[in-house]
Amino acid sequence: MTASPGGAAVGRRIGIGLMYGLWKPRVLGAWRVPAAGPVILAVNHSHNVDGPMLMGTAPRPVHFLIKKEAFVGPLGRFLEGIGQLKVDRESADRAAITEALGVLEHGGVLGIFPEGTRGEGDFASLRAGLAYFAVRSGAPIVPVAVLGSTERRGRLVRGLPPLRSRVDVVFGDAFEAGDGSGRRTRKALDEATVRIQQRLGAHLADAKRLTGR
After folding, report:
1. What's the confidence (pLDDT) of residue 149?
2. What is the pTM of this model?
3. N or C: which end of the chain has fewer CB within 10 A?
4. Are 101 and 85 in contact (CB under 8 A)?
């Protein structure tokens, strides 16, 4: 199934309603996201709400790569309907790779959690997938830090910020992951991953200083 740009636009409207209804997003630097053309949003992942939060606060509709385990029953059909991409994290999922590259080839926005799964949200452990998509497509990467409350008080669901709490979404400067040579070798991807990790880590530190988190 090809990711639907129209579906992602609907998902953005739903995200806006839900995220601004349940929390208090403060969006900083959204102007740094290119207004047109392919772009990859690299997002830290410490809350279950990070994906929907980006869908509701990013200035353009986003197609996220989401673990296949989430695509069950009605939720799976809903996620597909709003243009999200199912990926098997345990294998080289060629269908997901093709769909993701297709989003970028058509000038869309691809959202990736480069850490692979929800954790500390500090970009400490990056998978090579982000570097592959960036180098293969030539699309710029925009780092995004989602910083929610770490307090347990007021939480109704584990892994979510307390309802009506402030969540800061900070967009960083776009950058190119490749070295300009166009190489796609394993060595080139490993080097790109190191560069990406440095840029994402620096952005997260800047975002924490900016927001006082």
Report:
1. 63
2. 0.90
3. N
4. no
